[in-house]
Amino acid sequence: MEFPKDLDINSLTRDKVINLLLASIGFEELALAHMVKAEAKLLRRALGKLSANGNGPLVNSLDDLLKINRSVNDTLQIITNKEGILLSKLNKVVGLLEEIPVSESCCSVTVETGEAVIDAAFMNDENLGTNVTVDKIDISIAENCTMENNRIDLRLTDDTCQGITITLIENTATILCNPLFNAAIIRAAVDVTAANHQFNGKYNALISVNDNGHLTIFLQNELNRFLFRISGASAAVENCLSECPVSTNVCECSVNITTNQNTTITITGDNVFFPATLTNVYIDVPCKCDAANSSISVIIREEFLQILIPGEFLEGTISTLCEGNQALISGSIILGDVFYNLSVTANQNGSVTATFAGASTFTITLTGANVVIGQCTGV
């Protein structure tokens, strides 16, 4: 995290001011975290659990230990009071975010290869590792907008030159847009042609696209499943000239994701939790996709401290799409005090890929998580 060094006040817009307010809260929280860590080290030294330059305990009597304990308590009380002030400040900023009107324009999605690379690739339950590369990405989808024919044309290969080509089946593409946050989800039927002919055939496709060049591509038919996570593409989600309602709060299913002691958690991208360790992830989106009942949180551990980072979905941005045992969640969130566009692909076998795109971008991958997908009817 870095605060701008040369700030032109005359160029500030409403969005920039909100981002600066959120950044200021983040810096204050970081400072408080360092204070808590320093007080914890002080206690450990006082108890002889942590030596300084090979010396023994910091105190030699009960009175000295009680003095240090009172000092630590006083500091923690100050930190607690400051947290209350920061929470009030955050609530005010979130209120400003919720006042931003959602655009009523349709949006279009275009994606080209750019410097695209595969971050993760799975075939059925097999992790294909980093052997898969991107040869071509050409996606152009625009429902109810004045553009040329919709198309999806992707080609991927592995290090043995085994290739897979994915093309759109005409008139099957639909798009779920949130132009305000430059994100979209494409649902379509595609033809797959592979060097290994047993994978050939028609697949249902769910493709999430962020304006920062991140894509999640999920393909499934009765026999096979593919999941590709791509970054570095050249992507754009833009408003069209024609006016039509934006599809928000579209719910096909409810999704609940929790981790357990057997869940494997990995993070790729900008690791915002460094040097702490992520120990728990919780995401819940019920039917109707209302932000009031939806929730997200993560728990990290830094040394012997365990810290809960709560999240909040922004109203009108959440959607869930379903395909068999697979669900795709899209939404915008405030995690801790930072804004992100969130895209989650979850399978009832416990595999989850959650991408957080904001000032920093990172992906959390879960294996062996608890995933419950329920059908929504009458929504």
What does this structure look like?
This protein is of the alpha+beta class and 379 residues long. It has helices at residues 14-46, 62-98, and strands at 105-112, 117-123, 126-127, 133-141, 151-157, 163-168, 174-178, 183-194, 201-210, 215-220, 225-231, 234-243, 253-258, 264-269, 277-285, 295-302, 305-313, 319-323, 326-335, 338-347, 352-358, 361-367, 370-375. Strands 1, 2, 3, 4, 5, 6, 7, 8, 9, 10, 11 and 12 form a twelve-stranded antiparallel β-sheet that branches. Helix 1 packs antiparallel against helix 2 (62-98). The chain is elongated. Mean pLDDT is 78; it is low at 99-105 and 241-248.
TL;DR of this structure?
With 379 residues, this protein is of the alpha+beta class. The protein has helices spanning 14-46, 62-98, and strands at 105-112, 117-123, 126-127, 133-141, 151-157, 163-168, 174-178, 183-194, 201-210, 215-220, 225-231, 234-243, 253-258, 264-269, 277-285, 295-302, 305-313, 319-323, 326-335, 338-347, 352-358, 361-367, 370-375.
